[in-house]
Amino acid sequence: MSCRGTTQKFTETAMRRITILGRNLKDEDIDQIKRLAEDAGMTGAKIEVVDAVGEPDPDCEDEIVLILASPETCVDPALETDLATTQRGGRRAICVWPHDAAPGAQPPDSMNKYAYSIIRFDTERFRVVATEEDQHCFETSDGQPLPKPNTERNLCVDEEKAKAL
């Protein structure tokens, strides 16, 4: 699902925290992703860099885990655990392709499964998915929509829907 044409007004959340998964990143990568958040208006947000995603902060109203989808991060065997842990406490994982990502690069299955959004490196796109309720965006590094991922389904629900038809 693409997020083209989404131009909704930016609204500041009372308590927002940006957690950057920095385990596989160089200092310049971390600076780049911090700048993306700041340029998107997250200047009042608390921004921290972690090596692994921990437990949610109960005092934080909106926590975003920001993941640079570098080749090193995408092949990291611990990535799925970090993404799954992110969902505890209502946190959102936003994965961002680096500036120099190969055209047509595909996210790992764990990103397709757990990410709130996967976006190109774009300030406005990040602002939209970070601040607008229910704005999801799944795209390649050059802004093309990613194919819809296969998702696990609850067969009981699917069977009930089929019976209702």
User: Averaging pLDDT over every residue, what do you get?
Assistant: 86
CATH class: Alpha Beta
**Number of DSSP strands?**
5
Which series of helices and strands comes N to C?
EHEEHHEHEHH
Q: Which architecture per CATH?
A: 3-Layer(aba) Sandwich
Describe this structure in words.
This protein is α/β, with parallel strands linked by helices and 165 residues long. It has one domain: Rossmann fold (3-Layer(aba) Sandwich), CATH 3.40.50. The chain contains 6 helices and 5 strands. Strands 2-1-3-4-5 form a 5-stranded parallel beta sheet. The chain is globular and about 55 Å long. About 7% of the residues have low confidence.
Give the SSE map:
Blueprint: E1 16-21, H1 27-39, E2 46-50, E3 62-68, H2 71-74, H3 79-86, E4 92-96, H4 109-114, E5 117-119, H5 123-131, H6 155-164
Parallel strand pairs: 1-2, 1-3, 3-4, 4-5
Biased composition (Basic and acidic residues): 155-165
Region (Disordered): 138-165
Keywords:
alpha/beta; Rossmann fold; 6 helices; globular
Q: Nutshell version of this structure?
A:
The protein has 165 residues and is an alpha/beta fold. The protein has six helices and five strands.
